[in-house]
Amino acid sequence: MACEEKRWCLARNQTRDQLLDAGVKLFAEYNYDQVSNKMITDIVEVNSAMVSYYFKSKEKFYQEVVRYSSDLIIDKFVKFQPSNLETATKDELIEYINWGLDVYLEAFFSNEGKKFAIIYQRNLINTNNDILKEYNRPIDDVTSRYIRLFSVYYKKIEHPEINPVFTMIKIASLVYFMILHEQTSEVLIPEQMSAMKDLKEMLLSSVVNVSSS
Questions:
Q1: 30 domain residue, yes or no
Q2: CA angle 129, 132, 136 (to 5 degrees)
Q3: pLDDT given for residue 3 in this prediction
């Protein structure tokens, strides 16, 4: 039913989003079974029945948390829109790759990105097919943006045999490992920023500097 009172609708949506924010925070800190409705609503300071009111069940709430978290990541990739790839020069393609890696690292090393990765690791055992689809949406989105770029670049440098999917898997694996094992704090300290810069340079080199052998 459509909202007839605009002020009431805004308040309702705000409460719902606050519950989702609380869910992202808690599922990044605790396993699925450790999180209770009361823990969620205590953060938002609303009645403990509100989770059931808005989401029907804890499982549905968790699925919405994953969807919400996925959307936050996907929103960060919107600005990466390389154009005219087929007519771009080699140097222009390298600039696109450089830009793309910046966007990728900024997204996954943001607070939202780190929490998304940790939620995935902590709670993978509790996922059904619908939740797995939500987890995969950011991966599908970023893959569609980057695979074509890598493919065009490898053809441009006369290495069409290199599979751009493998390149993307290598990038994703290294970033995911670093997030989980080195980047646990919410604020990037100088040492972490330096490590992220080093990772970016390593990834850029591995994509761009292809052996001619």
A1: no
A2: 140
A3: 57
